[in-house]
Amino acid sequence: MSFQLAVIEGDGIGPEIVQASLQVLEKVAPGRFQYKPVLAGGRSIDQHGVPLTDAALTTCKNSDSVLLGAVGGPKWDTLPGHLRPERALLGIRKELGLFANIRPAKLYQVLKDACPLHRETAEKGFDMVIIRELTGGIYYGERGRKTDSDGNTIAFDTEIYNQTEIDRIARVAFDLARKRTKKVCSVDKANVLESSRLWRERVHQIAKEYPDVAVSDMLVDNAAMQLVRNPAQFDVIVTANMFGDILSDEASQLTGSIGMLPSASLGETRCGMYEPIHGSAPDIAGKNVANPLATILSIAMMLRLSFDMGSKADQIEKAVEKTLLKGCRTRDILDNNSKPLSTTEMTAEVISALA
Ligand code: NAD
Predict the structure, then answer these.
(1) What are the beta bridge partners of residue 132?
(2) Is 187's pLDDT higher than 80?
(3) What is the pTM assigned to this prediction?
(4) Between the CA of residue 9 and those of 6, 34, 92, 313, what are the distances in Å?
(5) Cβ 252 vs Cβ 240: under 8 Å
(6) How is residue 341 annotated by DSSP?
(7) Ligand 1 centroid to 225 CA: how many Å?
(8) Is 92 touching ligand 1 by the criterion CB < 6 Å?
(9) Domains detected in the chain
Protein backbone atom coordinates (compact mmCIF):
# COMPACT_ATOMS: atom_id res chain seq x y z
CA MET A 1 0.00 0.00 0.00
CA SER A 2 1.30 3.45 -0.83
CA PHE A 3 0.41 6.80 0.75
CA GLN A 4 -0.16 10.19 -0.85
CA LEU A 5 2.12 12.89 0.50
CA ALA A 6 1.44 16.53 -0.41
CA VAL A 7 4.84 18.21 -0.70
CA ILE A 8 5.15 21.96 -0.30
CA GLU A 9 8.74 22.94 -0.94
CA GLY A 10 7.91 26.60 -0.35
CA ASP A 11 10.40 29.44 -0.53
CA GLY A 12 14.01 30.23 0.39
CA ILE A 13 15.80 27.09 1.61
CA GLY A 14 12.51 25.14 1.42
CA PRO A 15 13.28 23.26 -1.83
CA GLU A 16 16.79 22.28 -0.64
CA ILE A 17 15.73 20.85 2.72
CA VAL A 18 12.58 19.17 1.40
CA GLN A 19 14.51 17.39 -1.35
CA ALA A 20 17.07 16.27 1.24
CA SER A 21 14.36 14.85 3.50
CA LEU A 22 12.61 13.03 0.65
CA GLN A 23 15.84 11.24 -0.19
CA VAL A 24 15.93 9.98 3.39
CA LEU A 25 12.27 8.97 3.23
CA GLU A 26 12.86 6.98 0.03
CA LYS A 27 15.80 5.24 1.67
CA VAL A 28 13.80 4.05 4.72
CA ALA A 29 10.47 3.45 3.00
CA PRO A 30 11.18 2.92 -0.70
CA GLY A 31 8.12 3.21 -2.93
CA ARG A 32 5.71 3.67 0.02
CA PHE A 33 4.86 7.29 -0.79
CA GLN A 34 3.52 9.05 -3.86
CA TYR A 35 4.52 12.69 -3.89
CA LYS A 36 2.03 15.40 -4.86
CA PRO A 37 3.85 18.71 -5.38
CA VAL A 38 1.85 21.67 -4.04
CA LEU A 39 2.63 25.30 -4.73
CA ALA A 40 2.09 27.52 -1.69
CA GLY A 41 3.54 30.70 -0.20
CA GLY A 42 5.63 33.14 -2.19
CA ARG A 43 5.99 30.96 -5.26
CA SER A 44 2.20 30.60 -5.43
CA ILE A 45 1.82 34.37 -5.13
CA ASP A 46 4.22 34.82 -8.04
CA GLN A 47 2.40 32.29 -10.19
CA HIS A 48 -1.27 32.64 -9.15
CA GLY A 49 -1.48 35.93 -7.24
CA VAL A 50 -2.53 34.19 -3.98
CA PRO A 51 -0.53 32.26 -1.35
CA LEU A 52 -2.74 29.18 -1.63
CA THR A 53 -5.12 28.28 -4.45
CA ASP A 54 -8.26 26.18 -3.92
CA ALA A 55 -6.67 23.46 -6.05
CA ALA A 56 -3.56 23.41 -3.84
CA LEU A 57 -5.74 23.18 -0.73
CA THR A 58 -7.74 20.33 -2.25
CA THR A 59 -4.54 18.39 -2.96
CA CYS A 60 -3.55 18.78 0.70
CA LYS A 61 -7.00 17.71 1.89
CA ASN A 62 -6.94 14.63 -0.34
CA SER A 63 -3.49 13.54 0.84
CA ASP A 64 -2.55 11.33 3.77
CA SER A 65 -0.24 14.03 5.12
CA VAL A 66 1.53 17.24 4.16
CA LEU A 67 5.27 17.92 4.23
CA LEU A 68 6.28 21.57 4.27
CA GLY A 69 9.69 23.25 3.90
CA ALA A 70 8.98 26.88 4.78
CA VAL A 71 7.32 29.87 3.15
CA GLY A 72 8.01 33.58 3.01
CA GLY A 73 10.79 36.00 2.23
CA PRO A 74 11.56 39.70 1.79
CA LYS A 75 10.16 39.75 -1.75
CA TRP A 76 6.61 39.38 -0.35
CA ASP A 77 7.02 41.28 2.95
CA THR A 78 5.20 44.41 1.82
CA LEU A 79 2.04 42.64 0.63
CA PRO A 80 -1.17 43.14 2.66
CA GLY A 81 -1.78 40.55 5.43
CA HIS A 82 -4.27 38.39 3.51
CA LEU A 83 -1.80 37.99 0.63
CA ARG A 84 1.32 37.20 2.68
CA PRO A 85 2.93 33.78 2.09
CA GLU A 86 2.31 32.70 5.73
CA ARG A 87 -1.44 32.91 5.07
CA ALA A 88 -1.08 29.65 3.16
CA LEU A 89 -0.25 27.85 6.41
CA LEU A 90 -3.23 29.30 8.27
CA GLY A 91 -5.46 28.15 5.39
CA ILE A 92 -4.10 24.60 5.50
CA ARG A 93 -4.27 24.36 9.32
CA LYS A 94 -7.84 25.60 9.35
CA GLU A 95 -9.07 23.45 6.47
CA LEU A 96 -7.38 20.29 7.79
CA GLY A 97 -8.49 21.03 11.39
CA LEU A 98 -4.92 20.86 12.68
CA PHE A 99 -5.46 21.97 16.27
CA ALA A 100 -2.42 20.40 17.94
CA ASN A 101 1.11 21.63 17.32
CA ILE A 102 3.70 19.19 18.58
CA ARG A 103 7.23 20.46 19.02
CA PRO A 104 9.92 18.28 20.52
CA ALA A 105 12.88 20.12 22.01
CA LYS A 106 15.78 17.79 22.66
CA LEU A 107 19.33 18.68 23.53
CA TYR A 108 21.65 16.27 21.78
CA GLN A 109 24.58 15.57 24.10
CA VAL A 110 27.01 16.07 21.22
CA LEU A 111 25.60 19.58 20.73
CA LYS A 112 25.53 20.57 24.38
CA ASP A 113 28.16 23.26 23.83
CA ALA A 114 25.62 25.08 21.65
CA CYS A 115 23.16 25.23 24.59
CA PRO A 116 23.13 28.75 26.07
CA LEU A 117 22.46 27.47 29.62
CA HIS A 118 24.94 26.87 32.45
CA ARG A 119 27.27 23.99 31.74
CA GLU A 120 25.87 21.81 34.59
CA THR A 121 22.34 22.36 33.30
CA ALA A 122 23.35 21.51 29.73
CA GLU A 123 25.23 18.41 30.96
CA LYS A 124 21.96 17.04 32.38
CA GLY A 125 20.38 17.38 28.92
CA PHE A 126 16.66 17.53 28.24
CA ASP A 127 14.13 15.89 26.00
CA MET A 128 10.67 17.45 26.10
CA VAL A 129 7.68 17.89 23.82
CA ILE A 130 5.60 21.04 23.88
CA ILE A 131 2.02 20.59 22.73
CA ARG A 132 0.52 23.89 21.75
CA GLU A 133 -3.18 24.40 21.04
CA LEU A 134 -3.14 25.83 17.54
CA THR A 135 -6.57 26.95 16.41
CA GLY A 136 -8.11 28.68 19.44
CA GLY A 137 -7.30 31.22 22.15
CA ILE A 138 -6.35 34.83 21.78
CA TYR A 139 -5.13 34.53 18.18
CA TYR A 140 -8.66 33.61 17.10
CA GLY A 141 -10.81 35.50 19.64
CA GLU A 142 -12.68 38.72 18.96
CA ARG A 143 -10.42 41.72 18.52
CA GLY A 144 -10.84 45.31 17.59
CA ARG A 145 -10.44 48.96 18.41
CA LYS A 146 -12.81 51.55 19.76
CA THR A 147 -12.72 55.02 21.23
CA ASP A 148 -13.96 55.75 24.76
CA SER A 149 -15.89 58.83 25.82
CA ASP A 150 -12.64 60.73 26.51
CA GLY A 151 -11.43 60.09 22.98
CA ASN A 152 -8.90 57.45 24.11
CA THR A 153 -8.23 54.72 21.56
CA ILE A 154 -8.72 51.21 22.99
CA ALA A 155 -7.50 47.99 21.41
CA PHE A 156 -8.58 44.56 22.62
CA ASP A 157 -7.94 40.86 21.90
CA THR A 158 -9.96 38.10 23.52
CA GLU A 159 -8.55 34.90 24.99
CA ILE A 160 -11.36 32.42 24.52
CA TYR A 161 -11.53 28.62 24.87
CA ASN A 162 -14.38 26.20 24.97
CA GLN A 163 -14.42 22.88 26.76
CA THR A 164 -14.21 20.83 23.56
CA GLU A 165 -11.06 22.62 22.41
CA ILE A 166 -9.36 22.02 25.76
CA ASP A 167 -10.47 18.39 26.06
CA ARG A 168 -9.13 17.40 22.66
CA ILE A 169 -5.71 19.01 23.10
CA ALA A 170 -5.45 17.50 26.60
CA ARG A 171 -6.09 14.04 25.13
CA VAL A 172 -3.31 14.59 22.58
CA ALA A 173 -0.96 15.36 25.49
CA PHE A 174 -2.02 12.38 27.61
CA ASP A 175 -1.84 10.00 24.65
CA LEU A 176 1.67 11.16 23.85
CA ALA A 177 2.73 11.01 27.50
CA ARG A 178 1.75 7.33 27.55
CA LYS A 179 4.37 6.71 24.86
CA ARG A 180 7.01 8.62 26.85
CA THR A 181 7.56 8.96 30.59
CA LYS A 182 3.87 9.34 31.53
CA LYS A 183 4.14 12.89 32.82
CA VAL A 184 2.12 15.89 31.64
CA CYS A 185 2.68 19.45 32.83
CA SER A 186 -0.22 21.73 31.95
CA VAL A 187 0.79 25.39 31.71
CA ASP A 188 -1.75 28.16 32.25
CA LYS A 189 -2.34 31.47 34.02
CA ALA A 190 -5.16 30.27 36.27
CA ASN A 191 -4.33 32.78 39.01
CA VAL A 192 -5.56 35.55 36.72
CA LEU A 193 -7.43 34.30 33.64
CA GLU A 194 -10.88 32.69 33.65
CA SER A 195 -10.04 30.88 30.39
CA SER A 196 -7.07 29.34 32.21
CA ARG A 197 -9.28 28.24 35.11
CA LEU A 198 -11.51 26.37 32.66
CA TRP A 199 -8.34 25.01 31.02
CA ARG A 200 -7.12 23.63 34.35
CA GLU A 201 -10.51 22.14 35.28
CA ARG A 202 -10.82 20.35 31.94
CA VAL A 203 -7.24 19.06 31.91
CA HIS A 204 -7.86 17.46 35.32
CA GLN A 205 -11.17 16.06 34.14
CA ILE A 206 -9.50 14.43 31.12
CA ALA A 207 -6.64 13.23 33.35
CA LYS A 208 -9.14 10.87 35.02
CA GLU A 209 -9.24 8.92 31.73
CA TYR A 210 -5.47 8.41 32.06
CA PRO A 211 -4.85 7.19 35.64
CA ASP A 212 -1.40 5.93 34.62
CA VAL A 213 -0.22 9.44 33.64
CA ALA A 214 0.87 11.99 36.27
CA VAL A 215 -0.46 15.51 35.70
CA SER A 216 0.84 18.75 37.21
CA ASP A 217 0.03 22.42 36.69
CA MET A 218 2.41 25.32 36.29
CA LEU A 219 1.77 29.02 35.80
CA VAL A 220 3.18 30.27 32.52
CA ASP A 221 5.53 32.83 34.10
CA ASN A 222 7.03 30.11 36.28
CA ALA A 223 7.26 27.77 33.26
CA ALA A 224 9.25 30.37 31.33
CA MET A 225 11.65 30.56 34.27
CA GLN A 226 11.83 26.79 34.90
CA LEU A 227 12.71 26.19 31.25
CA VAL A 228 16.00 28.00 31.72
CA ARG A 229 16.56 26.90 35.34
CA ASN A 230 15.94 23.17 34.99
CA PRO A 231 14.59 22.05 31.60
CA ALA A 232 15.27 18.39 32.44
CA GLN A 233 12.22 18.38 34.74
CA PHE A 234 9.83 18.53 31.75
CA ASP A 235 8.58 15.76 29.53
CA VAL A 236 5.22 16.62 27.90
CA ILE A 237 4.01 20.22 28.30
CA VAL A 238 0.51 21.14 27.12
CA THR A 239 -0.59 24.73 26.83
CA ALA A 240 -2.74 27.30 25.07
CA ASN A 241 -1.96 28.87 21.73
CA MET A 242 -0.11 32.03 22.79
CA PHE A 243 1.71 30.48 25.77
CA GLY A 244 2.82 27.61 23.52
CA ASP A 245 3.99 29.98 20.82
CA ILE A 246 6.31 31.73 23.27
CA LEU A 247 7.47 28.74 25.35
CA SER A 248 8.23 26.57 22.33
CA ASP A 249 10.46 29.25 20.82
CA GLU A 250 12.22 29.61 24.18
CA ALA A 251 12.72 25.83 24.39
CA SER A 252 13.97 25.63 20.82
CA GLN A 253 16.72 28.13 21.52
CA LEU A 254 17.92 26.02 24.46
CA THR A 255 18.82 23.26 22.02
CA GLY A 256 21.31 25.56 20.35
CA SER A 257 20.11 25.58 16.77
CA ILE A 258 16.86 26.26 15.03
CA GLY A 259 18.08 24.02 12.20
CA MET A 260 17.63 20.88 14.31
CA LEU A 261 14.00 20.97 15.40
CA PRO A 262 11.06 19.27 13.72
CA SER A 263 7.35 19.79 14.33
CA ALA A 264 3.98 18.24 13.61
CA SER A 265 0.50 19.71 13.44
CA LEU A 266 -2.30 17.22 13.97
CA GLY A 267 -6.08 17.14 14.06
CA GLU A 268 -8.74 14.50 14.68
CA THR A 269 -7.52 12.28 11.82
CA ARG A 270 -4.12 10.78 11.15
CA CYS A 271 -3.40 13.36 8.46
CA GLY A 272 -0.87 15.87 9.75
CA MET A 273 1.35 18.64 8.52
CA TYR A 274 5.06 18.16 9.20
CA GLU A 275 7.64 20.92 9.00
CA PRO A 276 10.88 22.19 10.51
CA ILE A 277 10.29 24.94 13.06
CA HIS A 278 12.57 27.38 11.26
CA GLY A 279 11.56 29.71 8.45
CA SER A 280 12.72 30.00 4.85
CA ALA A 281 16.13 31.48 5.80
CA PRO A 282 16.38 33.77 2.74
CA ASP A 283 19.90 34.81 3.80
CA ILE A 284 21.27 31.36 2.96
CA ALA A 285 18.81 30.22 0.28
CA GLY A 286 20.27 28.54 -2.79
CA LYS A 287 23.74 28.22 -1.23
CA ASN A 288 23.52 24.53 -0.27
CA VAL A 289 24.50 25.33 3.33
CA ALA A 290 21.16 24.91 5.17
CA ASN A 291 20.92 22.30 7.89
CA PRO A 292 18.52 19.62 6.58
CA LEU A 293 18.20 17.78 9.92
CA ALA A 294 15.03 19.54 11.18
CA THR A 295 13.19 18.51 8.02
CA ILE A 296 14.65 15.01 8.08
CA LEU A 297 13.51 14.68 11.72
CA SER A 298 10.07 15.98 10.68
CA ILE A 299 9.89 12.98 8.33
CA ALA A 300 10.60 10.73 11.33
CA MET A 301 7.73 12.38 13.25
CA MET A 302 5.46 11.87 10.27
CA LEU A 303 6.28 8.17 9.97
CA ARG A 304 5.63 7.65 13.68
CA LEU A 305 2.52 9.81 14.17
CA SER A 306 0.66 9.49 10.86
CA PHE A 307 1.77 6.16 9.41
CA ASP A 308 2.47 3.83 12.34
CA MET A 309 6.03 3.34 11.13
CA GLY A 310 7.68 3.90 14.48
CA SER A 311 10.62 1.62 13.78
CA LYS A 312 11.45 3.52 10.58
CA ALA A 313 11.20 6.77 12.55
CA ASP A 314 13.63 5.31 15.11
CA GLN A 315 16.02 4.41 12.27
CA ILE A 316 16.06 8.00 11.03
CA GLU A 317 16.54 9.47 14.51
CA LYS A 318 19.38 7.04 15.24
CA ALA A 319 21.02 7.84 11.90
CA VAL A 320 20.89 11.57 12.72
CA GLU A 321 22.49 10.94 16.13
CA LYS A 322 25.15 8.73 14.57
CA THR A 323 25.92 11.43 12.00
CA LEU A 324 26.31 14.05 14.71
CA LEU A 325 28.44 11.72 16.83
CA LYS A 326 30.70 11.19 13.85
CA GLY A 327 31.33 14.95 13.96
CA CYS A 328 29.33 15.93 10.87
CA ARG A 329 28.11 19.52 11.14
CA THR A 330 26.45 22.09 8.92
CA ARG A 331 27.71 25.57 9.62
CA ASP A 332 24.85 26.54 12.00
CA ILE A 333 25.97 23.84 14.47
CA LEU A 334 29.67 24.04 13.79
CA ASP A 335 32.12 23.55 16.65
CA ASN A 336 35.85 24.18 16.75
CA ASN A 337 36.76 20.65 15.69
CA SER A 338 34.75 20.31 12.52
CA LYS A 339 34.56 21.69 9.02
CA PRO A 340 31.14 22.59 7.68
CA LEU A 341 29.29 20.18 5.44
CA SER A 342 26.90 21.33 2.74
CA THR A 343 23.20 20.41 2.79
CA THR A 344 23.80 17.64 0.28
CA GLU A 345 26.87 16.28 2.11
CA MET A 346 25.01 16.20 5.43
CA THR A 347 22.08 14.41 3.79
CA ALA A 348 24.43 11.85 2.24
CA GLU A 349 25.95 11.25 5.69
CA VAL A 350 22.53 10.57 7.22
CA ILE A 351 21.66 8.22 4.37
CA SER A 352 24.90 6.33 4.78
CA ALA A 353 24.31 6.14 8.57
CA LEU A 354 20.94 4.54 7.78
CA ALA A 355 22.63 1.82 5.83
P1 NAD B 1 14.38 31.88 9.80
O2 NAD B 1 14.08 30.73 10.70
O3 NAD B 1 14.10 31.68 8.37
O4 NAD B 1 15.93 32.27 9.96
C5 NAD B 1 16.50 32.72 11.18
C6 NAD B 1 18.01 32.47 11.16
O7 NAD B 1 18.24 31.06 11.27
C8 NAD B 1 18.66 32.89 9.84
O9 NAD B 1 19.94 33.40 10.13
C10 NAD B 1 18.78 31.62 9.05
O11 NAD B 1 19.86 31.60 8.13
C12 NAD B 1 18.97 30.59 10.16
N13 NAD B 1 18.39 29.29 9.77
C14 NAD B 1 17.09 28.98 9.70
N15 NAD B 1 16.93 27.71 9.30
C16 NAD B 1 18.17 27.23 9.12
C17 NAD B 1 18.67 25.96 8.68
N18 NAD B 1 17.87 24.93 8.36
N19 NAD B 1 20.00 25.81 8.59
C20 NAD B 1 20.84 26.82 8.92
N21 NAD B 1 20.44 28.03 9.34
C22 NAD B 1 19.12 28.23 9.42
O23 NAD B 1 13.58 33.12 10.39
P24 NAD B 1 13.38 34.58 9.77
O25 NAD B 1 14.65 35.05 9.15
O26 NAD B 1 12.77 35.35 10.86
O27 NAD B 1 12.27 34.39 8.65
C28 NAD B 1 12.56 34.28 7.26
C29 NAD B 1 11.25 34.06 6.52
O30 NAD B 1 10.66 32.81 6.91
C31 NAD B 1 10.20 35.14 6.83
O32 NAD B 1 9.54 35.47 5.63
C33 NAD B 1 9.26 34.46 7.80
O34 NAD B 1 7.96 34.98 7.74
C35 NAD B 1 9.30 33.04 7.27
N36 NAD B 1 8.91 32.01 8.25
C37 NAD B 1 8.22 30.95 7.77
C38 NAD B 1 7.88 29.91 8.62
C39 NAD B 1 7.14 28.75 8.05
O40 NAD B 1 7.06 28.63 6.84
N41 NAD B 1 6.62 27.86 8.87
C42 NAD B 1 8.26 29.95 9.96
C43 NAD B 1 9.00 31.04 10.42
C44 NAD B 1 9.33 32.07 9.55
Answers:
(1) 101, 239
(2) yes
(3) 0.92
(4) 10, 15, 14, 21
(5) no
(6) P
(7) 25
(8) no
(9) 1-98+290-355 (3.40.718.10), 116-254 (3.40.718.10)
